[in-house]
Amino acid sequence: MTEPIKRRDPLVPRRRFSVNAALDDVFFVFAGLAAIWLAYLIITEAFSWGWWAIGFAVAFWLILAYLVLPRLHSILTRIYVPSYFIGRARTSDGLLGDPVNLAVLGTEEQLTRCMAEAGWTRADDITAASTWRIVSSTMLRRSYDEAPVSPLFLFGRRQDLAYQQEVEGNPAKRHHVRFWRCPDGWMLPGGHRVDWVAAGTFDRAVGFSLFTLQITHKIDADIDIERDHIVGTLREAHTGVRIVIIRDFSTGYHSRNGGGDSIHTDGDLPVVDLRRVVQARSADAAEEAVEEAPVTELRGLS
């Protein structure tokens, strides 16, 4: 009788036990339970305060939306959401966020230059000043081209770059895309090597998150339209851009993002090659007539 084949070690190492990690988990859970208890005390005490109950209701919503539910999701998603790449970014609470629907070949200098020349604006970092400015701009319907975007996480870190295009001077509506630099030696499922992956969606309005009740942007469900818009702006601005489309990179699906908004996609992943664009410009070849680069299609292995 032959010996059974031993399974290879998983690509993603399991989390090792340590006293510090165990204590961190204990206090993490305790903080979540304490936040739930605080919210319970506020809502029960509110009934004996008359008109002050309105203030208590607001306090209850703030604690529930910005303390209790995020903490609860953070605890639960540690258990059921994979930590490896599955084609979805994650919110700061651990929820599945926007799908990865774009990849890029090129350096950071090439990417930032091409995005700027294609009409995209670099988003501000989230600070107290930028947060207040986007709140006031949204309420007063004032333009804020550099409005920050919320952090989404991939490869264990938030986005490296974020760009947007405001629509009709209204910060509540905007095209936006987040970029993450890929780790050294990392490849997409199927063995495709890229330098950046990105998630692009269109903000259509401001509303409440279905999962945390926080105030957030609501996105359009058809994320493929936004994906194609991003690619189209780059191709229109730079004739040397090459596109390789990985068909069926992921199975076409209907789902929800981290704010509870419906999303659907055909599962195709365009890979935008920017490496020839800047090289051609540096060689003073930009003035020459260049035919539009063809679109190449590959079959995904998902």
UniProtKB/TrEMBL annotation:
Keywords: Membrane, Transmembrane, Transmembrane helix. InterPro entries: LssY-like-C_dom (IPR025902). This is LssY-like C-terminal domain-containing protein. It comes from Microbacterium maritypicum MF109. Residues 79-269 form the LssY-like C-terminal domain. It comes from the Bacteria. The chain crosses the membrane at residues 21-43, 49-69. Pfam families: LssY_C.
